[in-house]
């Protein structure tokens, strides 16, 4: 079986190494052939930031590059945008004959219709978790502001990080009906 591994962390300060090791061990333990690895260092919350996911979806359209399975650490590595987003992604892979399997959510290997409900629940949980983390961050920033702390970068400071051209939304590129000009 041909497998593509997809790993994601939220920031460039983090590493996908732990995910990769576990996924490689899982795939080789089953005798699967790892044909590609897609390593992402971008938020799963903001659309259009996941360049590697976009490349993976594109490769799934190409018969020579198409894996049989996309293996992820957990489904929230794909998206945190909620039930509709995870169902759309999984169904997009499915349309190309590719299964999405999660190391943490072993039920993704089970056949049947129950998977749709579970994907939606996991998508909702990931979205809620992300929203709660954002609320905690905002509350912490508000507390610091009330204590008189200066927030943000110093006046006149510039980004040291090179910025690339903004990638169009994955959802707009891969989930829009064919033939629709964007």
Care to give the gist of this entry?
With 182 residues, the protein is of the alpha/beta class.
What's the layout of helices and strands?
Layout (H helix, E strand, L loop, with lengths): L1 E8 L7 H13 L3 E9 L9 H11 L7 E4 L10 H13 L3 E4 L11 H33 L23 H5 L8
Describe this structure in words.
This protein has 182 residues and is an alpha/beta fold. It has a domain at 2-122: Resolvase, N-terminal catalytic domain (Rossmann fold, 3-Layer(aba) Sandwich). 41% of the residues lie in helices and 14% in strands. The protein has five helices and four strands, in the order βαβαβαβαα. The chain has a four-stranded parallel β-sheet with strand order 2-1-3-4, with helices on both faces. Helix 3 packs across helix 4 (114-146). It starts with a strand and ends in an 8-residue tail after the last helix. The relative contact order is 0.14. Mean pLDDT is 80; it is low at 176-182.
């Amino acid at each position: 079986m041909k497998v593509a591994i997809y790993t994601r962390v939220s920031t460039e300060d983090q590493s996908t190494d732990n995910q990769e090791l576990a996924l490689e061990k899982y795939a080789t333990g089953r005798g699967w052939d790892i044909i590609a690895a897609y390593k992402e260092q971008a938020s799963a919350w903001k659309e259009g930031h996941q360049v590697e996911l976009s490349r993976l979806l594109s490769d799934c359209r190409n018969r020579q590059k198409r894996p049989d399975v996309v293996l992820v650490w957990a489904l929230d590595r794909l998206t945190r945008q909620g039930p509709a987003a995870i169902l759309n992604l999984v169904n997009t892979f499915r349309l190309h004959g590719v299964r999405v399997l999660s190391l943490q959510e072993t039920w993704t290997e089970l056949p049947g219709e129950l998977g749709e409900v579970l994907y939606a629940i996991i998508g909702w949980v990931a979205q809620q978790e992300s929203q709660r983390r954002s609320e905690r961050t905002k509350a912490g920033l508000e507390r610091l502001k009330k204590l008189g702390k200066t927030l943000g970068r110093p006046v006149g400071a510039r980004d040291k990080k090179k910025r690339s051209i903004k990638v169009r939304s994955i959802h707009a590129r891969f989930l829009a009906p064919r033939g629709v000009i964007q």
